[in-house]
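During the reporting period the student researcher (J.K.) took over the structure-prediction task from the postdoctoral fellow and processed the backlog of single-chain submissions. One of the processed entries is reproduced below for the supervisory committee.
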Amino acid sequence: MEHLLKGKFGKIVFSSYSKNPLKYGSKANFKRGVSSVWGGRAVDRSRPLLKSQYQQQRRDYGIFVVRALRSVLKIRYLLLGGAVGGSVTLQRKYQDWKDGLPDLKWLEDVLPDNDKWQQFRTSLIQLRDNVKDNIEVDPRLKEVTQNKYREFKDWFDQRLDDAIAVAEKSNSQISYGGDFARISEFVDRLYSDTKNEVINNSVVHARTFLQKDESTRKESQAHLDSLHDEVIQTQIRYQRELERLEKENKELRKQNLLLKQGRKPSSRQVKRSLIDMYSDVLDELADYDTTTYSTADQLPRVVVVGDQSSGKTSVLEMIAQARIFPRGAGEMMTRAPVKVTLSEGPYHVAQFRDSSREFDLTKELDLADLRREVELRMRNSVRGGKTVSSDVISMTVKGPGIQRMVLVDLPGIISTVTTDMASDTREAIKVMTQAYMNNPNAIILCIQDGSVDAERSNVTDLVSQCDPSGKRTIFVLTKVDMAEENLTDPNRIRKILQGKLFPMKALGYFAVVTGRGRRDDSIQTIREYEENFFRNSKLFKEGRVMTAQVTTRNLSLAVADCFWKMVKETVEQQADAFKATRFNLETEWKNTFPRLREQDRDELFERARTEILDEVVNLSQVSPKKWEDCLLDRIWERVSDHVFENIYLPAAQSESQGSFNTTVDIKLRQWAERALPSKSVESGWETLQTEFRHFLEKASKSPDHDTIFDQLKEAVVTEAMQKHLWEDKALDVLRVIQLNTLEDRTVTDKKDWDSATRFLESSIKDKLKNTENLLHHMLGPSARERWMYWQYLTEEQTRRNAVKVELDKILNSNQSHPPVLSYDELTTIRKNIQHSNIDVDSEFIREVWYPVYRTHFLKKAQQRINDCRRSYFLYHQGEETECSDVILFHRIQQMLKVTSNALRQQIMNREARRLDKEIKEVLDDYSQDNEKKEKLLTGRRVTLAEDLKRVRQIQEKLEDFIQALNKEK
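J.K. obtained the following structure tokens:
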């Protein structure tokens, strides 16, 4: 046994210790564990053995050998037995199993090769023979134990002989070929080390693969085949699309190359289908209505009418071969006319006229999106609390086998207005339906529910009123399956389809089935159901209905034939009518506006946009000096009243120069921290507006000015001015500048002193003039004016003149009178004028006192200014003067200069560009608002140009369509 542990097999065992030493502990423990596995103890040969010890070791060694043989040969017996029993299955599935096995070449370096394994097997057999002859039973065992041991020994010997015999027989008689021999070798090697975790995993994988259920493998294969077919079909479909895109890309590359070479690419128009061209003409006519052309005289189209829930929308879907409309159970879903242009194409797609998105009608997700879009457009078209709308929703549907025509689906006619509808809904639907049916070129597709009584029909009466002769009406009976099931008399359906039951006439009568009442049924499912129904229906079998009168397929063919027949008969007449209308409009334009080019509202608006933006650019031509002068005048105009009333006059009433300066400093700081910055910004904004409007007025006086733009320009500029707000940070900047400037009370030179004196003098002069005008208005005409111009005083003016005489006496007696009258003075004035039979109250006297005292004060200030002109030398020497008001106005003047300079920089650097941006935004908004264009651009010149443009477009489209129609013939 020791040589086995030292060989390759021993290396495998000890490799387990090297990989996981924590599992076994120390190396001595590991050796003891190995000895225990083999059933014996490790032999210590360093010491001599006693006879009893030697016998004991020999017995232990024999037990160890027996256990080893039992374990190893039992496993091999089971393996070989399984190999014999499953040899046929292994040979049949070996190839599949071999392909799924992992790469196990690394095991050849670990496991012993076949020759060494056979040597080991032979050694075990020889060991077995020796053990059978020499093994002895321990004499200390009891009799019962000896009997059990003999039975076990006989049983073990028999099983061991049988296993060896089977092994020898299998080696000599059974031949599985070279591959199976290698499999047997591999299995022997695989199970030689049951402790190796990697080998166990490989064996489990091999067994799982061999035991895989055959039915599961077949299902997987079938699923893979279906997926493969689906991928192939998808690849074919997208290969076609790819080829189309590559063709277009090739053409674009060719045009790009020509452009790079400086050559103009050939403008080859894409050929459009005939029905698309006709649909464009109808869209142009949708909103066109004049005194010479009524919407009732429009070109042919198929108008789908019927009672609510009669199935008219389902009929249209069957003709379009797609469920394109929203569905509802007992609820009105069609709330606006839907114009559907049907044409044939390679792909089944739908698209709205004002959208570039294409909906793939073969995909349920796109169909759901299309239905939601239709419903959303219908709800958005309904305004003002109404239930239905006359706004037309235009869409195109293309697909293989679709008949070319234009259909209009209208809201269903209702009998009762429910609480969730507008009160005029019933009448609105009736008027809308009649308007479409009254078109003499409209084909009426009258839909009647076959499952309800004929007496309950509302639509047939309207149709008979609009088309009494039935020359452009096609009658469609829906839900025939339900009618056949519910009606006891099938002849009733025959009478309907023969035109003998309803009081109306028609070109043709058709019976269709548009579904089984299931909302999720596809068009193909409904079509198959319809064909199966009519194939098995009693109506066919009993000859009550002709074959050509049933199915939506026959219906669509008949409607398309009728539609194109009417189109060919009427289109040239419509083109001639528009040609005459165009001639009349062009003649009127030449006689009314001979020197002007025809421009519609859009063109006029673009001209106005250019002129307005050019005036904004002119703001950059204003010089900085002009900006500052205008700003300075504007700011002083806004703050002069506050300076006089709240700062100068209260400070001037002080008793000393020190109190005057203190009052001025306090009030100036309060003013600069609160109101002055905002007043300055308002002045800057008003100056910017004034200058901009000045340029507009200057442009309006130009000989080339067009007055048609004046109203639009004024609206744009006014809205932009209202939106414009000065930057917030400008207030903080101005506040700091103004505070620093007002705190400086130093006059640096004689020039600044003289400038401040002139500023004070002019300001006082303006205030004095305003005050004298106010006083003159209060007192009435003077004696000279009364004598020369025959003017008279009113009673109130007479009383004011009497009060003024008394007030002049008080001021002449006291030139330094305070600005407020005392109680005694008021009493004296009242008593003095009572002698002249004039009675006034104290408030009346104060009202006159205000302008009288103001005039007296300002005249005194003017006299003091003359003395201050020559006082700069005394001020410069530091001597005290009575010219503190000059210093005050010098501070204010410097503040005005720095403020106007700061505002000028803000205007030129920021605000003019921001105003330009806001005007552009307003213009962009107006460009998308047709109502504002119609309101601001008015006059016969505009409406005549609009009519001319529309008539030309319609006529050109009609002529192109007629030309294409003649080519198709």
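The committee noted the following: The mean pLDDT is 76.
J.K. will present the remaining backlog at the next meeting.
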